[in-house]
Specification:
- With 393 residues, the chain is an alpha/beta fold.
- The protein folds into two domains: 242 residues, P-loop containing nucleotide triphosphate hydrolases (Rossmann fold, 3-Layer(aba) Sandwich); 128 residues, Immunoglobulin-like (Sandwich), CATH 2.60.40.
- 24% of the residues lie in helices and 37% in strands.
- The chain has eight helices and 17 strands.
- The strands form three sheets. Strands 10, 11, 12, 13, 14, 15, 16 and 17 form an eight-stranded mixed β-sheet that branches. A six-stranded mixed β-sheet has the order 5-6-7-3-8-9, sandwiched between helices.
- Helix 3 crosses helix 4, helix 4 packs across helix 5 and helix 7 packs antiparallel against helix 8.
- The two termini are 50 Å apart.
- Bound molecules: adenosine-5'-triphosphate (ATP).
- Adenosine-5'-triphosphate binds next to helix 2.
- One of its GO terms (cellular component) is membrane.
- Keywords: ATP-binding, Nucleotide-binding, Transport.
- InterPro entries: AAA+_ATPase, ABC_transporter-like_ATP-bd, ABC_transporter-like_CS, ABC_transpr_TagH-like, Bact_Polysacc_Export_ATP-bd, P-loop_NTPase.
Amino acid sequence: MTEEIAVKVSHVSKFFRLPTEATNSLRSKMINSLKGVKGYKQQYVLKDINFTVNKGDFFGIVGRNGSGKSTLLKIISQIYVPETGNVEVSGKLVSFIELGVGFNPELTGRENVYLNGAMLGFSTGEIDGMYDEIVEFAELGEFMNQKLKNYSSGMQVRLAFSVAIKAKGDVLVLDEVLAVGDEAFQRKCDNFFKEIKEDKTKTIILVTHDMNSVKKYCNKAVLIKDGLITINGSPNDVANEYIKENFSTHKNESGNENSFGVSPSIPILDIKANSPIILKNMENCSFSIEFESKEKKNLKLELRVSDDVSSALITRRVKEIEAFGKQSINYILPISILNNIQFNVKVTITDKDTEEILAYTTEEKALHFKIDNSANKGKGLLSPSEAVSGDWS
Ligand SMILES: Nc1ncnc2c1ncn2[C@@H]1O[C@H](COP(=O)(O)OP(=O)(O)OP(=O)(O)O)[C@@H](O)[C@H]1O
């Protein structure tokens, strides 16, 4: 069965002009123009963005502040025109990406629902049909005849969000940052997202910084970095890569740059060699994984041993443990089938319950070994049946 496309983003690029000098007189403007000085530079915010969202998808867009997510949502919602490329949308698109658009503080809640609905392209009859559901979801029944300017900011957000999600659109574009509210309203939104995830006639595009939401609701996601899509794939891969990206800008308490790859709950992660790192005439390579868990947690340790030259994975082992405090776990890797090879050892520690990555070994902190043993016959991994495994101790 071929999937129906809801939104197709093709080769979209966008730049903004940033002033490079202040020209506050007509004279300097004229001189600059004669000299060919433009007085601004083009800052590319999106660079050749391509992806497809199918009907029924719950599609996540993830990226750090300033990576270009809101600009992309505005292009999808036809608020901005891209410099290159285009966006094709099938069906009616409803977006909730900027607060206050389509709302007038001098009008009542009720009038604002009709105004906003009209701006989204719905007729009065259509809004009549949606009105009760919108008010019920927003829990603002008794306030609908009051002017919007008398609403608290939370109430205004609730109304705007409710119009967006209860409007009968086919594609809903949401910036989750705006979907704030008290705990009860958040729970309601959570239920709504869970329901809509199962509704294969609705398509959602959600920008969020909350990786639990990505894993919980989305079936596909993209990660944007500096205006480029760096991953287009499974929500788990995107969420984990985003967490790693964020980690690399967090220094640990000592401010030591070599400690990148740790988090407040696992502030230390090291791999220490117990055997020499140049292995001659030896059968085993041994090392210990040392880390500290600030809280009692069920953890998943993923050990990866890879060839330094080809990056091929030699072995991957997973161990689940309940850990609290300082830990040291030994690992013995038999090397009898390897020779003339350099390899590295890295570890990723994940919270077993939430699947969040809590710490991982960065390139700089990987432990490297070299095998120089003429008694061993092979080079690298000989065949899958001879895969190197090893033991935890
Ligand atoms: N109207 C504008 N004029 C000039 N620059 C802009 C404009 N809008 C956005 N930018 C710049 O474009 C870049 C991307 O901004 P954008 O708001 O799309 O990022 P974002 O990923 O949504 O960030 P956040 O997570 O903080 O909302 C930023 O460097 C921002 O300063």
